[in-house]
Every structure is written in structure tokens, then in C-alpha cells.
What does this fold into?
Amino acid sequence: MSVTVEFDREATVEVEDLEQSLLEISRAAGIPHISACGGNARCSTCRVMILEGLENVAPRNKTEAKLADRKGFDAQIRLACQTHITGPVRLRRLVIDEEDRKIAQSSGRKATGKDRKLAILFSDIRRFTSFAESHLAYDVIHILGRYFRKIGGPVLECGGYIDKYMGDGIMAIFGLESRDPAQACRDAVRAGLGMLKELDELNVYLREQFDTEFRIGIGVHVGPVIIGEMGHPKKMQFTAIGDTVNIASRIESATKIVGTSMLVSAEVCALLRDELVAGRSQRVNLKGKTGEHLLTEVLGLREREAPTDEAAPAPEPPSDD
Ligand code: FES
It folds into this structure.
């Protein structure tokens, strides 16, 4: 026995396999149904409005219910990737303009990004604007080039990925290879310490040649991010996005409030436990974030004791990349 599914203004299909989700039914009918998270109940792009036959739609599962609650969806707004039917329905896709159609056609069933737990490092030169204003433009370019070459070294040596340069700032991602959040934090902190060491050497040159020196702030946070290629199809760029990135940036800014060069979040401290040589800790309100965040100054990193066989971590499952 088949049931009728009418995609309003798009197609009407007869469906026999009711094990399929509405998204699978839609895709099988050739409808370019956008699904940014790849059907994992992590976005709202596949959502549909049930126009008729809501009684033939199975109740929300836990993941859909959580997202619907967060987004304040009415009962007839459903995530197509999570929704199954038991009888005929008429529905309308909601994210449906021409651009989305093209995106859906080019990305197929793939998610636009991937969820990962990574460490993010931000660094910035203090009072760079006044420095740039008081020096010749080509001197600034020369010094900045030398600066990026110096401090980029430790990032790359520690397995980091330089995500972007923002004026005089850098954002770097750690953990893309190791898939171990503690290792990602260790690498990020080690890179930050290396950057400060390189800066000391650069400052000798800057004092001698330009009668100036740089001070920088570094912030590190770890947490969930979405990574992937983003941007215009002709200029796509790999990056990480999410609140973890925003918080790492705010932690870097907080180095000015605390009056230190490098701060890490409580989450980084927890993962590095005895390894971190910590200085002051301070509760700080981060701009644009609610509540206070406990930030800790980093003075160094102790060598880790080699794990015994008993304590050795279980091997990572093979990557499905
Ligand atoms: S595709 Fe993201 S929630 Fe359905």
C-alpha cells in the first residue's frame, strides 16, 4: 500500500517505504531539499510545515524535540530529516529560495560542515593601531611580515592550522589531526608559549631598528566547533565556526583586563590538569557572553609523564573522513 505525500507547489509522490524520513522521500523525488547538517538534527534548513495530515506524522524524537524547543517551533513545523509518516500528508518546504536550491544541488546529501572538539587560539598585537599610525607604511608592512613569520613558526611546529590573519591578529586551530582534545590544548598552549619566546627575539630587533617593541595577547579555549569549507564557491576557505571560536577571541581580549600575555579557559585547564604551570586566575565577564568565565594565566607547561601500558588510552577508531 502506498501513501501520497504532496510537496506543496513542487511534487506529489506515492511512497511505499515508510521507513524513509521525509527528507529521504523528498530527495528520492528529485527535490533539491537543503540539509546543511547532513540530516543530523543540528540545523533547521530541512524544516517543513505540515499543511494537512499532521495526525499521520510520527511524534518528534528526542533530538528533534530538543531543537524544536530551542527554536520555538510550532507542532506543524518539523525537521524533514527526523520525521516519519504513517499516512498521507501535504507539506511545504520552508527554506526554499533559488540560492538554497543551488546549494542543495551542489552539496547533495553532504553536510556543509563537521562537528569536532578542537582548541582555538587567538593572538593580537597590543596597541597596533597607534604603532601603525606612527611608523611609515612600508616599515609597518615589513615589520608585520617579519612578525607573522616569527610567530607562525610555533603554531605550525605544534601541529596548528593558521586559519586566518585579521590585521595584526591570528586565529589558529589545534586538534585537526590528533582528535584528542587534551592534545589539542597541549599543542595550542605550547604554540602560545613558543610565540611569546619568538616575540622576545623579535623585540630585540624592533628595539634596535625601529625603537619600538610589541606586546601580544593570546587566548586559548577548547570546545565544539563546526569545521568545513565556507564562502563563495569560487573562493571557499576552510575554517571553524561556533561559540568556542567567539569565546577564544574574547579570552584573547581579556588579556588586557587581566594584564597578562596568555590566558586559557577553565575547560583548557581541566584537560591539562597537572601539566599547566598556572599563574593568576580571575573571573572575567567576556564581552557578549553571559556570566563570568574563570580564566587562568599560563606561565609554562610541564613535560608529561609517559603513560604506562595500563593507563594508555584506547586507540582512536579509524577515521571515516
Ligand atoms: S538536515 Fe539539519 S536538521 Fe535536518
Notes: Helices lie at 22-28, 62-71, 98-107, 128-133, 137-157, 181-210, 243-258, 266-272. Residues 39 and 81 are 5 Å apart (CA to CA).
